[in-house]
Amino acid sequence: GIQVEQSPPDLILQEGANSTLRCNFSDSVNNLQWFHQNPWGQLINLFYIPSGTKQNGRLSATTVATERYSLLYISSSQTTDSGVYFCAVPRFGNEKLTFGTGTRLTIIP
Amino acid sequence: ETGVTQSPTHLIKTRGQQVTLRCSSQSGHNTVSWYQQALGQGPQFIFQYYREEENGRGNFPPRFSGLQFPNYSSELNVNALELDDSALYLCASSFTGNYGYTFGSGTRLTVV
């Protein structure tokens, strides 16, 4: 099956810093989603981005499908950005998701 | 538009018991998927239901089963609970052909 790797596994930053999270996938995909899992466990959808670039406030994401990677940018980090960030892609070209290994982001005041 | 709701939020069961977890899908969504997330890991796909039938299954034994009802809500049943079944169980709804998923807050199951 498809392999999804994320880097870095852990990231600790001061409030106000910028960060870049990376997601590599082993096969071509037609869907990629970025999620933020808050400390209570809920997965919040950030972006659905099979290709190109999207922005939502301080967050933006870019997927280069031909090179099999996606990047999530967080600017001017806030403590509420802390949590685990996952990228996820479909299994076998259908709608079931394979999640990456996750990046745990900790923002220090 | 209502989101995905799951119940209960927390549950403690004894090894060998059976458990039923419930999920109400987001309005307008017709597909429900279940995921298991062990501590420190990413969610793992259990199965998906569409039109009240199982539509794909991950690497989970038959003691994990499910149902989808006409209103698109769903249940996850786990028989003969094992200690390794302790995890956060997440439900996600979507609309077939539309790849956006909405996740619930999950049910945290502890097996002792």
Can you give me a brief rundown of this structure?
Chain A is mainly beta. Chain A has strands at 4-7, 10-14, 19-25, 33-37, 43-48, 52-56, 59-64, 69-74, 83-90, 97-99, 103-108. Chain A contains no helices and eleven strands.
Task: Describe this entry's structure for a reader.
Chain A is mainly β and 109 residues long. Chain A has strands at 4-7, 10-14, 19-25, 33-37, 43-48, 52-56, 59-64, 69-74, 83-90, 97-99, 103-108. Chain A is globular. In chain B, strands 2, 4, 5, 6, 9, 10 and 11 form a seven-stranded mixed sheet that branches. Chain B has a four-stranded antiparallel sheet with strand order 1-3-8-7, with no helix packed on it. Classes of the chains: A mainly beta (109), B mainly beta (112). The A-B interface holds A 30-31, 33, 35, 40-45, 48, 50, 86, 88, 90-91, 94-102 and B 31, 33, 35, 37, 41-45, 48, 56, 58, 88, 90, 92, 94, 96, 99-106, 108.
Topology:
The complex is a heterodimer of chains A (109) and B (112).
Chain A: E1 4-7, E2 10-14, E3 19-25, E4 33-37, E5 43-48, E6 52-56, E7 59-64, E8 69-74, E9 83-90, E10 97-99, E11 103-108
Parallel strand pairs in A: 2-11
Antiparallel strand pairs in A: 1-3, 3-8, 4-5, 4-9, 6-7, 7-8, 9-10, 9-11
Chain B: E1 5-7, E2 10-13, E3 19-24, E4 31-37, E5 44-50, E6 53-57, E7 64-68, E8 74-78, E9 87-95, E10 98-103, E11 107-111
Parallel strand pairs in B: 2-11
Antiparallel strand pairs in B: 1-3, 3-8, 4-5, 4-9, 5-6, 7-8, 9-10, 9-11
Q: What overall form of chain A do the CA principal axes indicate? A: globular
| Helical residues, percent of chain A | under 10%
Overall SS class of chain B: mainly beta
The count of β-strands of chain B is 11
Intertermini distance of chain B: 38 Å
Report Rg of chain A.
13 Å
Structural class determined from secondary elements of chain A: mainly beta
- Strand-residue proportion of chain B: over 45%
- Biggest sheet features of chain A: 6 strands, mixed
Helix-strand string of chain B: EEEEEEEEEEE
Largest sheet of chain B: 7 strands, mixed
Number of helices of chain B: 0
Uncertain runs of chain A are none
Mean of residue pLDDT of chain B?
Answer: 92
DSSP strand count of chain A: 11
Low-confidence stretches of chain B: none
Helix content of chain B: under 10%
End-to-end separation of chain A? 40 Å
Number of helices of chain A: 0
